[in-house]
Amino acid sequence: MSGIRFEDVSHDFGDERVVDHVTLELTERRVGIVGANGSGKSTLARMINGLVTPTEGRVEVDGLDVARHGREVRRRVGFVFTNADTQIVMPTVREDVAFTLRRHRLSPADAAARVERTLDRFGLADLADRPAHRLSGGQKQLLALAAVLVGEPSIVVADEPTTLLDARNARRIAEHFETLDEQLVVVSHQLELLESFDRVIVMEGGRVIADDEPRPALDAYRALIG
Amino acid sequence: MIGVFHPGTSVVHRAPALVKLGLLAVIVTTVALLPSLPALGAASVVVVALFALARVPFRVAWRQVSPILWILAFAVPVQWIFAGWEAAATMGVRLVLAVALAAVYTLTTPVTATLDAMQVLLRPFRRWIDADRVGLALALAIRCVPLLADLVREVLDARKARGAEGSPTAFAVPVIVRALRTADHLGEALMARGVDD
After folding, report:
1. What distance in Å separates residue B166's CA from the closest CA in chain A?
2. Is B153 in CB contact (< 8 Å) with chain A?
3. ipTM (interface predicted TM)
4. Measuring CA to CA, how many Å separate B68 from each of B78, B92, B98, B146?
5. Which domains does chain A have, with CATH numbers?
6. pTM higher than the cut 0.90
């Protein structure tokens, strides 16, 4: 079975319940999750590749239990963080993209070809030997996305990927999202990013309070935040 | 000192990382054992020739070597007082040459090549040492220098903006808290990229 499934999932941080009995099945190509700070949306997203393990319930990706098959799930699910700076591990752009493939057991020639293709796709080929920390914020987020996609995941989860970017760079990231063939789950406060998605989930107090097509779901969120 | 790869096609760039690491160890040891200033002068010519052979621009090389001068500005006078000018000069030249040689290595060798070399080097010890982890720790150490430098700069700016320039607490607390938080985020990102699998 393909897609993501949350089965009566809850999660507690200490005494605080941040995700509260959520049941969802995500099979659409592009799914957005919105909610106020502390609504549980990032925790929910982190459960998809096992960064957070649910206190109760079960999360499945393509029929695999994330808690039991974390390694296989993380090969299928790429994760893009809010702050690309903390996602970039290697000193140069090319090396950081190549780092993802170190565990894929590809031949050096195949790995190098895949890295070059990915750098081209994201317009990073000219910056390939630059120190990653000297890139602009937008370029760093593109690098983070490239480093995820070079591993050819079937699902990409992005946690507020445009929050730290200016409008132009946020638009560039959104344009790349439009071209992805992979299933995409985006947590975002930037509602315009989610307007063209297939489905939007609204969270509040750890619960799903709206789950619909973008327009009615985003209207429900706007009503919620006043 | 924490050099970032300077791309090129020179013979130094093309030499295998393992060979360069071996040569680096041998030459730095030799420099440390050279007894006289004239011998160190000859070694300096070799080091300059290596930079030229690698076609590293002077500006790039200077950026790598110059930070050691701050340490020498303190260490050389102290050595002069306690051991005489010749010992002080010998120590200073040895340190500059060691840093310059390390810079030749890092400027001409991508980190991934160093990681691969590390795996080969540690292969006989794989029962006891995880070569991947050693390599990753090295890469992260290099990566974290600019990350921490940015963090310190931001905290210094924030301290200044709040008029607390002289307060060590207003510097140390946010730097430590943010460094630990950054380490958490980095760990989470490594996990997401399958490093611990």
Report:
1. 29
2. no
3. 0.78
4. 16, 9, 10, 17
5. 4-225 (3.40.50.300)
6. no
